[in-house]
């Protein structure tokens, strides 16, 4: 971090908006590769809601989302990155860099990474507890429901498809319309009729939980009580793309931010990673995107090697100008190495 004593302006090489797995991984790479980096995180997010961590190799499933993120924050801080619990309200271009307005003031950055994710559409109450009977990610949580009674809430193609997909794990699947009329396609209707999924039209009027907080059953307006271990809500997603749109970044039809293979958007110097982009909404995928963006950031920011054109204009690199990493980050690297030796 660079702070101007004349204007009290704070400058970073890399500012990351969003503190989920993608944003924190991008910060880890940027900091370790020698760039002044800050993460701006308002808190919350899909990963923070996880009661258990699934499909992340090397991480026990007993680790909650908050524990997973807290460990990641400790890691990026150990390499010299700043973690700022602030909400970024606006971003503008300013003399080739970016000006970020936050709930705590204004900062400037040469590169910005958006990792603001999306928000799952939630059905109306009554509902089971999130993570204790209400889930949003089939690829994360389907394994939990092998040979168990499962519901899927929703009335569109995605809900019907997930209900049929769950037949790979259990033979007891209900599709809950909750009083809505189905609006899936004719093809989906034919598929659904030919798969053993029970379609329940009545709305949910109550939830029964066990002593451990897990769902045991749902009550319906016709008086029926149906037992479930858990299930999935499929009501779409809303991408948190306001900052990307305000900067003119290209958006896909569904609202996700269009990026290349290393997270670059259509705006020079602006990157996007994680659930904000079109890909599988999985922690390992998000971490991979953050890593690739971090490497791309480094290549666009690193001091050396100088190009032939730069050498022709300015001459050979003076030994006094190396290393290229900021002194504060080099000092932090020494502290980190000493801690590893203890």
TrEMBL record:
SUPFAM superfamilies: FAD/NAD(P)-binding domain
Taxonomic lineage from the root: Archaea, Methanobacteriati, Methanobacteriota, Stenosarchaea group, Halobacteria
Pfam families registered for this protein in UniProt: Pyr_redox_2
InterPro entries given in the database record: FAD/NAD-bd_sf (IPR036188), FAD/NAD-binding_dom (IPR023753), Ferredoxin-NADP_redctase_2 (IPR050097)
Protein name: Thioredoxin-disulfide reductase
Keywords from the UniProt entry: Flavoprotein, Oxidoreductase
Region (Disordered): 316-342
Boundaries of every FAD/NAD(P)-binding domain copy: 12-290
Any one GO MF annotation of this record: oxidoreductase activity
Spans traversing the lipid bilayer: none
């Amino acid at each position: 971090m660079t702070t101007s004593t004349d204007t009290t302006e704070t400058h970073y090489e890399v500012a990351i908006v969003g503190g989920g797995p993608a944003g924190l991984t991008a910060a880890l790479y940027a900091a370790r590769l020698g760039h002044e980096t800050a993460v701006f995180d308002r808190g919350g997010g899909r990963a923070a809601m996880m009661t258990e961590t699934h499909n992340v190799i090397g991480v026990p499933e007993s680790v909650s989302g908050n524990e997973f993120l807290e460990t990641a924050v400790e890691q990026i801080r150990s390499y010299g990155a700043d973690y700022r619990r602030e909400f970024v309200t606006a971003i503008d271009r300013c003399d080739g860099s970016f000006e970020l307005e936050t709930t705590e003031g204004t900062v400037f950055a040469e590169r910005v990474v958006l990792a603001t994710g999306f928000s799952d559409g939630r059905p109306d109450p009554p509902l089971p507890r999130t993570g204790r009977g209400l889930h949003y990610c089939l690829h994360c949580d389907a394994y939990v429901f092998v040979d168990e009674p499962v519901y899927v809430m929703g009335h569109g193609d995605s809900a019907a498809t997930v209900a049929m997909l769950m037949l790979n794990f259990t033979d007891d699947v209900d599709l809950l319309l909750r009083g809505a009329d189905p609006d899936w396609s004719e093809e989906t209707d034919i598929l659904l009729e030919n798969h053993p999924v029970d379609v329940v039209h009545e709305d949910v009027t109550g939830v029964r939980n066990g002593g451990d907080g897990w769902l045991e059953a749902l009550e319906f307006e016709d008086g029926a009580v149906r037992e479930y271990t858990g299930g999935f809500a499929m009501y779409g997603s809303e991408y948190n793309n306001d900052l990307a749109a305000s900067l003119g970044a290209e958006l896909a039809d569904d609202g996700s931010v269009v990026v290349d293979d290393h997270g670059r958007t259509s705006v020079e110097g602006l990157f996007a990673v994680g659930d904000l982009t079109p890909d599988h909404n999985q922690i390992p995928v998000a971490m991979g995107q953050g890593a690739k963006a971090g490497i791309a950031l480094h290549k666009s920011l690193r001091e050396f090697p100088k190009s032939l054109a730069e050498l022709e204009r300015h001459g050979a690199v003076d030994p006094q100008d190396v290393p290229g990493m900021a002194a504060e980050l080099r000092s932090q690297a020494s502290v980190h190495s000493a801690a590893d030796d203890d």
